[in-house]
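Let's inspect one such protein example.
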Amino acid sequence: MHQALRIIFLGTPDFAVPSLDILHKNNFSIVAVVTAPDKPSGRGLKVQESSVKKYAVEHHLPILQPTKLKDPSFIEELSSLKADLQVVVAFRMLPEAVWNMPPLGTINLHASLLPHYRGAAPINWAVINGEKETGVTTFKLLHAIDTGQIIDQKKVAIGNEETAGELHDRLMLEGAQLLLKTVQSFADGNYQLTPQFSLSDNTHIIKTAPKIFKEDCRIDWNKNVNEIYNLVRGLSPSPAAWTTLNGKQLKIFFGKKNTSLAFSVPGTAETDHKTYIRIACKEGWLYLTEIQWEGKKRMGVEEFLRGFREDPVVG
């Protein structure tokens, strides 16, 4: 039955590709792929295609790249495709004229256990907040972002040393599997919708996942070492936690915490100029292991120290 289900897929980055791939390989009819317009990027401003577009081109899927989602010509083109269902994975906010168009509506894959971590950066914030568990959720779109009725969820444990980038890659694959299960249930007419409020614990505040800005990434060395360690993990590899080292920005992609050494004034930096740089936090130290100094490439700390002979001062 599912081969007759006409689907429009909307997505842009790497995270969306396995979801498109699994639907395509399971013989669902993808009548169009909607993705972001091409844009110039890099030093040479070479035009770059989205990851989803590259997949669609390779597999000869029809592609739409609207600049404005409310453009009447785009709405008309979508309508002419007569899709039964729309699937959204890592795409921008849709106007009601788009998400409410198909008879079966529009479903979204979100990288958290809704209702927690609604917003643009659910993977980052789950790690930053020191969560031990997160997951993926499929739900039907409504007006307010990430608030629609839940179709299905899958829980995923977060490793003690796992970075947001590593978790992203695992959730990307887990999400694709969950999405396939969800779309199959729609094709079979055998699915249930659960309001998000019925899954929330009214004694706790719902955690959110807002967009992350540069100042959110700056390390406050007066915070507890566990908080700083989680911040570094939660922002790695992008946009990356940062501090200043001898007046220059230093991105920290990973570090190891130590709570057994004698404490020092938070923000104190020490190095043997060979194997380590450590920075004091509240109740511990962070040993830097992967870093990038302003104007330099990303590197391990030992490689960095071969060219760094100053006494370290952080800001």
Remarks:
- The first helix runs from residue 17 to 25.
